[in-house]
Amino acid sequence: MELLAQILSSGIAVGMIYAVIAFGFQLTFSTSGTLNFGQGEALMLGALVGLTCVDTLGMNYWLMIPVVCLFGMIQGGFVELIGVRPAIKIKSEFGWIMSTIALGIIFKNVAENVWGRDALPFPSPLPMEPMTFLGANILPMEILVVVGALVMMLLVEFFNRKTIYGKAVVATANDRDAAGLMGINTSMVITFSYALSSLTAAFAGVLIAPLTLTGATMGGALGLKAFAVAIIGGLSSGLGIIVGGLILGIVETATGFYISTGYKDVPGLILLLLVLAYKPSGLFGKSAIKKV
């Protein structure tokens, strides 16, 4: 039971990080039908900017978070403006894929030249001594990761449901053409969705950074796994994103405990292949019907 509790606690913390990054994929897909394949690099840049604020500028961790979120919004808006909007205008079906991948590579190279290739430690705002709960050793930062990820997703949902700008986002997601006819600037809504997407990734970066090393390569694997979570849970379902993240996080942790850390990525990829084969819309996603 103690081992099970340890696996669940560690898996939930990892899974919620995947979920909050995958939530960013859902934000852009719902408004524009496109995805930012540089989402992992947005997380990496958020973590490195946060490290600079805390370690170099001496900023308090909690005061640093709004700065990183603002940086994430600017970076996401830049990606949409440079890489996605031109492809949407010329109705290029796959142009935005290569553009976001290319921008992700550029951001990674810039990070390597600015911060170096070596992984750097990120100072933790909370004690790194584990607490015992139901026999499991849980770090205070792991609790912060879970709470922070949930709070971020709830705030975005509150924004979408209760504010006038959020309702414009929802309207664009439901029917972009109809939203445009009603006077909504859908181009700005799509830009905002990319900004919000990168904000969530940058926020995830500063959440996970104290638990791991921070460097230019940290975002690649996390972005790929978050994409797998988005596909497994369903790009049209917020609940699916959370469930998919928890499933992948717990399965990976259990594989690392019972088999080997060298195989921990395998079960999640097998699950991804099964979902793509038998339920392409995701476990909680809805199939889209297109008129031809």
Structural features, described:
The protein is mainly alpha-helical. The chain has one domain (2-223). The protein contains eleven helices and four strands. It has a two-stranded antiparallel sheet. Helix 1 (2-32) packs across helix 6 (164-174), helix 1 crosses helix 9 and helix 2 crosses helix 8. The longest helix is centred in the N-terminal third of the chain and has 31 residues, at 2-32. It starts with a helix and ends in a 14-residue tail after the last helix. The model has no long low-confidence stretch (mean pLDDT 86).
Report the major sheet.
Answer: 2 strands, antiparallel
Based on DSSP secondary structure assignment, what is the total number of beta strands?
A: 4
Radius of gyration: 19 Å
Strand order of the largest sheet: 1-4
The span between the termini is 55 Å
Structural class, judged by helices and strands?
mainly alpha
Which spans of ≥5 residues are poorly predicted at pLDDT below 50?
Answer: none
Please tell me the overall pLDDT.
Answer: 86
What is the count of structural domains? Answer: 1
- State the helical fraction: over 70%
- Shape assignment: globular
Strand-residue fraction?
A: under 5%
Topology order in helix (H) and strand (E) letters: HHHHEEEHHHHEHHH
Count of helical stretches: 11
